[in-house]
Amino acid sequence: MYLEGKSYQTIANILNAEKVLNPKKWTDVKIEKILNNKIYVGDFERLKKIGKEQGKAPIIYQNVVEPIISRAIFEDVQTQKEKNQRAYCRDRVYIFMQKVICPKCGKLMTCKGTGGTKKKYMYYYCNDCKLYLREDLIEQVAMPMIMNLIEYDMTVKKYFFPVLADKKEKNTSKLDKEISLLQNQKTRIKDAYLKGIVEMEDFSEDYKIIEDKLKILEQKRLEIIDINKQTFSPQSLMADRDVEKEKLIRSNKFKDMLMAEWEGKTKEEKQEFISKFIESVTIDKDKRGYYTLENIKFRKNYIDQLVTLLNKGMFEVEIPCTKGKEETTVTSSVLMDKKELDEYMDRLNDYYEVSYYELKRLDEPQKGYQKKYFTIDLVNDNGEKFFKLVELIRR
């Protein structure tokens, strides 16, 4: 929770509300001590308190007990703590707090805000370079990236839990039913908002209540699934995901659904979401005041998840192709063999009539770098619509 952007006190409040280790009373001080304790990565610190009083380093014995978290996660927490200790303007909520890197000097930008009776803006400021970046314009230029992360997050919650889980197996049917009911409620509320039946204020309030319940249930579900004992197929999970996505695309609701998901979050939830996936972003501003997203550094936990999905043949990339004379991109799945492709196609055919065509692999360029494109009819003479590319491999 700390890596997702929650403070010590917020974490303590959640644990108290969920009655974790009841009647234990959680406080921000206790949470801080836990986050500082190396015993959770298997190390024991001897003479820590005395050493601190005397200005000496404690004696550390490594791997004395079985770790319950990885060293990578522990180091991520320590890095985040250092950033938070340098944070400014804590009386306001900044979506990209401790995330924006100055494009000129590479230092972390601090948070500032305007006051008075005029319209208030949230800024990120570099004291060395005297550079200001407006938060609303950063959010605007980062929206394509944010939309992709929202799609990924929703996909993981609904379909890819079994692939990313690593816990003991139990029965999840009751939780599945509760989650399904709440997701149906979310869908109805979103539709009502998109159709203009409810206002943003009412939408956000009801949406937040459902989201909070879903977070708890989905976390419990993740904790009781064992990937080694569950009978699931990555290809069938992908097919189910793609069918739902295609339905939304055909009804022209896909982008609206993702935008409603983002707009339905409070600023605190937006900050938490950004912190969950992103380590830092670099935004440049030209002389005309136009913003450009120059660089993104994602969190290691997110990258590890993508690697897991890649190894299961569930990772997708956008590759270049031509549409007439225009350059565009198409979705491509990687690391799928013929048997997995057949399973994926069979599952898709439960909903749509699907077939595939083989493309001849392009020869590698002989010298230097060359751009290479596939030429694809997105809609052919038979009225068939292009869906995606699949790169076949031999296992």
Describe this protein's structure:
By secondary structure, the chain is α/β, with parallel strands linked by helices. Among the domains are: 137-169 and 225-310, no CATH class; 315-392, no CATH class. It contains twelve helices and twelve strands. The protein has helices spanning 8-17, 28-36, 48-53, 71-85, 135-164, 173-194, 200-223, 234-250, 254-263, 267-277, 300-311, 338-348; strands at 44-46, 59-61, 100-101, 110-113, 122-126, 131-134, 278-285, 291-298, 316-323, 326-336, 374-375, 389-392. The chain has a four-stranded mixed sheet. It has a three-stranded mixed sheet with strand order 3-7-8. A three-stranded antiparallel sheet has the order 4-5-6. α1 (8-17) crosses α2 (28-36) and α6 (173-194) packs antiparallel against α7. The chain is globular and about 75 Å long. It starts with 7 loop residues before the first helix and ends with a strand. The model is unreliable at 86-90, 226-230 and 368-373 (pLDDT under 50).
